[in-house]
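Example record used in the benchmark description.
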Amino acid sequence: MLNWAYPLGWPEGLAAIIFFLLYLGYALRTRRLAAPLGQRGWALGWKLVLRVAYVGLLGAALLGPAYGITQRPVRTEGKDVWLLVDLSRSMDAGDVAPSRLQKVKQELTTLVSRFQADRLGLIVFGGEAYVQCPLTYDQAALQLFLNTLQTSLVPAASTDLATPLELVLQRLESSQSGTAEARPRAVAIVLVTDGEDFGENLEPTTRILARSGTRVFPMGVGTAEGSRIPQASGRGYLRDARGREAITRLVPAPLRRLAEQTGGQYFELTDRRNEFPLLLNALNRLEGQAEQVRTVSVADNRYRYPLVLALLLVLLDVVVTVKVIRP
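Model output (structure tokens):
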């Protein structure tokens, strides 16, 4: 069954109309010049058939006629990118408009759409960490999970940066113990948080990540001046143990250390600076690992046949000359 690699659209139709209009103008001009000499210029007729034929064949070649099925080897190459998103109450702060979390969701939506050849997963955390979406190529599913992110998804507790990183390590160990993949894939972690860490020492987890070759790219969200944290009810702001309004500030120091020790890079999202584009570039530069070669069935594009025939007709048109008007 004959199929086409590209559908016939308005550019092709427009090109055909322009060709016929130009040729019609050429024919009318030739006839007008031949009339005073008592000639009609009909010698142009067979050239018209020839030119219509090779223009049509060139158009067919561009559309890619496919007939039959052929087997082709495909080497897949990619990386795994884990998105770790802080959902502690401080992410509702408004020092990054409209709020830290809302701005992060917008930027992550763009990030996900740029990595179609890679697997992406989503982990949310506060005091504890949960896999919201396992590694997947399904961008639509991941986008759906991103749209539903809110601080109420995790229990209210002090932020512990070690818990999501340890969860990634557990996933890495379980995937390496299986036999589904021929070779281990490159792994990158995007840690989106304000940097406030109330957990235990992060150094042991960092050392394990560095030994495994996993690079961490922290994205610090917030400002040094900080902001108040709105109540979940929307009425008033959270208060500390002394009864004063709690202020949350960006703490970049532990995030910079984490990036340096794992071979990653630190970025910031503040009220004045958005370094998400730089993060995208850094992830793009991270080379994926080649996996096994797979054989896939694809339609056999036979554009060469109409193309060769069209070129032969063009050559014939150039070589064979016709006297349209004889003196």
